[in-house]
Structure formats: C-alpha cells, structure tokens
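Please fill in the sequence for the structure shown.

STRUCTURE ENCODING:
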C-alpha cells in the first residue's frame, strides 16, 4: 500500500478518536495528529508524483 494511503488511514483513525473523547486536550491532540498525517500523505503524494517537496514548502514545527 502506498505511504499516502497509509498516512490517510492514520489521519482518519485520529479523527475517529477525537470524536470519541470528551476530553478537550485529547481531542485537540488527535486533531493535530490527523492534520500532520494528512500533511505527510500529501507530501508522499507530491514526491511519488515526481513533483518533489521543497523544504521551503514545509510548515515549520511550532513546538508545544
């Protein structure tokens, strides 16, 4: 299975977990993780499609 599909599955799983929890910190964490998995999926798609991903196109880590 291509990495992008795997990453999208992980993102969906994070969103499912976010919907299940009533803890707002956990919900925010799962949503943030889903966004990162989706970003990685897009990056994998761009690389696989031959377009590449320049470091300048990546969003820097904002930390905690």
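FILLED IN BY: designer on duty
SEQUENCE:
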């Amino acid at each position: 299975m291509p990495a992008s599909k795997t990453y999208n599955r992980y993102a969906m799983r994070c969103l499912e977990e976010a919907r299940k929890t009533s803890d707002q910190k956990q919900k925010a964490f799962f949503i943030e993780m889903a966004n990162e998995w989706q970003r990685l999926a897009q990056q994998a798609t761009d690389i696989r499609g031959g377009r590449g991903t320049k470091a300048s196109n990546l969003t820097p880590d904002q930390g905690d």
